[in-house]
Design goal:
The protein is α+β, with helices and mostly antiparallel strands. It has two domains: 5-128, DNA-binding pseudobarrel domain (At1g16640 B3 domain), CATH 2.40.330; 137-280, no CATH class. 30% of the residues lie in helices and 21% in strands. The protein contains eleven helices and twelve strands. It has helices at residues 5-11, 23-28, 35-45, 59-62, 124-128, 137-146, 178-187, 240-248, 251-262, 266-271, 274-280, and strands at residues 13-20, 30-33, 51-52, 63-68, 74-81, 89-92, 106-112, 117-122, 165-168, 171-174, 212-215, 235-238. Helix 6 crosses helix 7 and helix 8 crosses helix 9.
Length: 286
């Protein structure tokens, strides 16, 4: 499966692909490359430099260098077309070579920003939780809650937001306008947009139901967008539980949340398919 924008951002990759290792592939110590997996490898090594026939017939040509994910190691894996009349491209895995993911793991391959071919594997739980952390989310939530509550006039602030880089604790990030969040709260009547009946508590700050703001298309993707993600249509009013679920829920539960908000955002529907949005949350089933 093709890397989604989330994966390219997380892995600092230009293009990549992933799939689940089957028990048979683990037992046979070989992965049959298909689709984009094969395309990436063929483009990188060129088809003329890939061995046709078994490994033993030309071990030097069969051996190919890969950078092992999250290390500085270069490992050599055998890559061949085992049958001349059959377009099967096989990658041989082994503990000796340093790469043998077990059945059920997610293996991936990508070209990084240094034009290196990287191979790696993660267990399903780790793979599914890659998108859980947004380093700026807690600070943003606190800034919204600390903003002096007042009635916001839509004419006073740019509802489309702006793209502006700022420094926070020595880290470069993108500016988020807390007033836009408050405006979204007012439009939702300080209720959760997943379900208006979700109970919360009364905020000591403004004596209103406590809700939190979330960017439907996460702000971490601002660097690959040519329009500001900090805009009124992209903001959601959520109860604390639903907000945490967007970050930490299992895929099936997260997809339910995504579908609920997607149906309420016509402008976002005009820009992205529901599958696109799932990709932003690493919710593409393997």
């Amino acid at each position: 499966m093709k890397f989604q924008p989330f994966h390219n951002l997380f892995f600092s990759s230009k293009i990549g692909a992933f799939s689940r290792v089957t028990n048979r592939e683990f037992q046979d110590s070989q992965i049959t490359l298909t689709g984009l997996e094969a395309e990436i490898i063929i483009d990188y090594f060129t088809i003329q430099n890939i061995q046709t026939g078994n490994v033993k017939s030309n071990p030097t040509k069969a051996s190919k260098p890969f950078k092992l994910y999250n290390t500085d190691k270069i490992i050599n894996l055998n890559l061949v077309y085992p049958k001349p009349k059959k377009p099967e491209l096989r990658l041989y895995i082994s503990n000796k070579s340093g790469f043998k993911p077990t059945g059920g793991m997610i293996w991936f391959i990508f070209i990084n920003n240094k034009n290196e071919l990287v191979v790696g594997a993660l267990d399903e739980i780790t793979w599914g939780s890659l998108d859980q952390y947004d380093i700026d989310d807690n600070e943003y939530t606190n800034s919204v809650n600390l903003t002096i509550p007042k009635k916001i006039n839509i004419k006073e602030i740019p509802t489309k937001g702006e793209i502006k880089k700022i420094k926070i604790k020595g880290r470069t990030t993108y500016k988020r306008n807390p007033n836009l969040a408050i405006l979204r709260f007012e439009k939702s009547e300080y209720k959760c947009e997943i379900n208006a009946n979700h109970r919360t508590f009364t905020s000591i700050k403004n004596n209103l139901p406590f809700v939190e703001s979330h960017h439907f298309i996460p702000m971490k993707f601002q660097g690959i967008m040519d329009y500001p993600l900090d805009n009124l249509d992209n903001l959601i009013s959520l109860c604390p539980n639903c907000h945490r679920a967007f970050h930490h829920a299992i895929i099936d539960e997260k997809i339910l949340l995504i579908n609920e908000i997607y149906q309420k955002r016509k402008k976002i529907q005009n820009l992205y398919s529901i599958e696109d949005i799932k990709g932003f949350y690493n919710c593409i089933r393997v």
